[in-house]
Amino acid sequence: MQRKDSLNLVLVMNLKRSLADFDDEDIAIEVKKGVVYISISDKMLFKSGSYEISDPAKKVIGKIAQIVNDHNDLDILVEGHTDNVPIQTACMMDNWDLSVMRATSVVKIITANSKVNPLRLTAAGRGEFDPIARGNSAEE
Predict the structure, then answer these.
(1) Half-sphere exposure of 128 (CA within 13 A, CB side)
(2) What is the pLDDT of residues 3-39, one digit of tens each?
């Protein structure tokens, strides 16, 4: 357990050092129950109702990928979230679809720009059922 905590601490310190030039309001790194969580704000990642990743977010994801690539023993779960503003398009039936597509977009950026083994990655969608922030409209 102590070894895992030490490895997590090293990972967190490396991530924070690598991402120091980005706004702290947009990126949060913390350890909960022995798991390292990296949260990137939706305003940095996506426009409302979109799964296309912004250029600044691609840089952040690239830096994260470089760091996690050095920790081959870690598996990576990318969770996509949405607000509760309903969405329906030709390729998305609802917010759950959007959240999965957001997670998949991040996974694709990681695999396209790093040597992170795709077998270590999982993309999951949380939809509007587990929002990071409680917005009631596209503006919140």
Answers:
(1) 15
(2) 777 888 999 999 999 999 888 789 999 999 888 999 9
Q: Is 126 helix (H, G, I), strand (E, B) or coil?
A: coil
pTM above 0.70, yes or no: yes
- Would you call 123 exposed, middle or buried from its count of C-beta atoms within 10 A (0-12, 13-18, 19+)? buried
CA distances from 98 to 14, 46, 52, 71, 122 (A): 31, 11, 11, 29, 16
- Residue ranges of the chain whose pLDDT lies below 70: 1, 131-140
DSSP state of 116: -
Are 11 and 3 a contacting pair, CB within 8 Å? no
